Amino acid sequence: xxxxxxxxxVERTVAQVGSIAREGADIIRLTAQGKREGEALGxxxxxxxxxxxxxxxxxxxxxxxxxxxxxxxxxDKVRINPGNFRTSNGELSRLIEICRRRGVALRIxxxxxxxAKHIIDRLGDTPEGMVxxxxxxxxxxxxxxxxxxxxSIKASNTVIMVETVRRLVVAMEKENMDF
Length: 179
Fold this sequence. Notes:
Layout: H1 10-22, E1 27-32, H2 35-50, E2 56-61, H3 65-72, E3 77-80, H4 91-102, E4 105-111, H5 117-123, H6 127-143, E5 149-154, H7 158-174
Parallel strand pairs: 1-2, 2-3, 3-4, 4-5
Helix pairs in contact: 1-2, 2-3, 3-4, 5-6, 6-7
């Protein structure tokens, strides 16, 4: 499930996570769109653990790599969008190192409609572009021997989504990726 409280509101977010956890959720996502939300993650996690709420918490990072790194220091999984993150400047490598050190999983969430400019320029907003977006990030994970990775593919058009997933499986098999 995913909270709908403002993540920067620690008290309300902790209350909602607690309510969702008591209903049996195994994983709860929180959005972390900016610095205020990122800074709230530590106090949220501390209060959840103080209340003996141990449901896995995922920080859904929208735009800022620095917030992803901040989140990786405290949550159980970090979700990034390759359209908002770069591999070329070492941002992803730094995030992977934090995740590895803490035992945090990384979710690479590829969304049709929000691919990186260099992917759009080369392949367009297509299944091929979505696959290349995921593969670019997976290659960095493989090079760093980091396997605590989850891939999600999302498109409002189910035909595009299914085609993308099928192409991604083929691409991963071709490069012997055994996540």
